[in-house]
Amino acid sequence: MEDQLAEAIARFDYPPVTYDFIAGCELSFPSMIDLDHYLQDQLLSGAQDKLKDGLSGILYWGNYRAPYRDYRIAKFRTGVTSAKLHLEHPNLLFQHRKIALKPQLP
Predict the structure, then answer these.
(1) What's the pLDDT tens digit per position in 16-37?
(2) Are 32 and 49 in contact (CB under 8 A)?
């Protein structure tokens, strides 16, 4: 099982990239865990602009090779409102802390 997991991780060929919406440029990270930490910091910062950028960054990464990537991100960024982020952010934060503090046992 561990060998299969190691092989799957080694074969994972998705670039650890996202977008810096303030600087207006792509960001490349040395590893997926570094990308994950960057996005997690944005999502859990408590600031609505960083939350919006973090969610947009996830869309950028998840649609990196898709030809409609930029359209999908622009649609999200123009459609999401501060009120929606305000309503959803506490739930996101609560769920993250709940998972981090009380992991499910097998």
Answers:
(1) 999 999 999 999 999 889 999 9
(2) no
Q: What is the pLDDT of residues 89-106, one digit of tens each?
A: 555 544 544 444 444 444
Domain ranges within the chain, ordered by starting residue? 2-101
What Å distances lie between residue 47 and 5, 21, 28, 41, 44, CA to CA?
36, 14, 23, 10, 8
Contact 52, 85 (CB under 8 A): yes
Residue with tokens 């960083």: 50
Distances (CA, A) of 2 to 6, 8, 24, 32, 72: 6, 10, 40, 19, 37
- Amino acid sitting at position 20: D
pTM: 0.73
- DSSP-assigned letter for residue 104: P
